Amino acid sequence: KDAGTFVCNETLYRSLKSLQDQENLHIPCLFVHFPIEEKCSVQKASEFLHEILQRMFFRPVLSVVGGLLWRTGTYMVARRKIGELHAGKWEFPGGKVEKNESKITAIKREMMEEFGWKVSALPSIGTWYHSLPDIEIALHIMPLQIELADLNDQTLWTSHDAILWRNLDDESPLEWLGNDRMVVEWMRENNYNG
């Protein structure tokens, strides 16, 4: 018993009819009706709509997560090891968000797979985009806390050969992967403090 049903159906009908009546004009039209907020939060609805729009209007978008470890005014980056894709590049470590996986679950899995570190994660502080030849990358940066790990034990590392703790004001050059450098610039501009 949704009082908005008639309004939604009427809006749908009239919008589609109006678009159909336009000669030689092909305007895409999308209606998305979300459940009430108690069943689907505004944040979840926004994320879902964002995913829909990415697929409708742009090249394929690959959602990846990067972990932001912060320690007394420094952030951690990791260097991709020889033999890995993008070897020698520095990044906020992480990887692809798998189908039916939340960003938080993805970054926890990736940190365990790549370093053997058990972490807890907070929601993304932002999304940075960059283009590869066939795909767009949406990099979601996730603040992390180490729960269980020896950060210096490299025996479980699978994709990296070094980590580096950098001060936010350190502008010495690094060979960055993708748009990771822009994350650092954003942190500087916004006086990010973990």
Question: How are the secondary structure elements laid out?
Answer:
Elements: H1 4-20, H2 42-57, E1 61-71, E2 74-80, E3 90-91, E4 94-96, H3 103-115, E5 118-121, E6 126-131, E7 136-148, E8 160-167, H4 180-189
Parallel strand pairs: 1-7
Antiparallel strand pairs: 1-2, 1-4, 2-3, 2-8, 5-7, 6-7
Can you put this structure into words, describing what you see?
With 194 residues, the protein is of the alpha+beta class. The protein has 2 domains: 4-57, no CATH class; 61-189, Nucleoside Triphosphate Pyrophosphohydrolase. The protein is 29% helix and 28% strand. It has 4 helices and 8 strands; from the N terminus they run H-H-E-E-E-E-H-E-E-E-E-H. It has helices at 4-20, 42-57, 103-115, 180-189, and strands spanning 61-71, 74-80, 90-91, 94-96, 118-121, 126-131, 136-148, 160-167. Strands 1, 2, 3, 4, 5, 6, 7 and 8 form an 8-stranded mixed β-sheet that branches. The longest helix has 17 residues, at 4-20. The N and C termini lie far apart (46 Å). The mean pLDDT is 88.
Provide a concise account of the structure shown.
The protein has 194 residues and is α+β, with helices and mostly antiparallel strands. It has helices at 4-20, 42-57, 103-115, 180-189, and strands spanning 61-71, 74-80, 90-91, 94-96, 118-121, 126-131, 136-148, 160-167. It is built from four helices and eight strands, in the order ααββββαββββα.
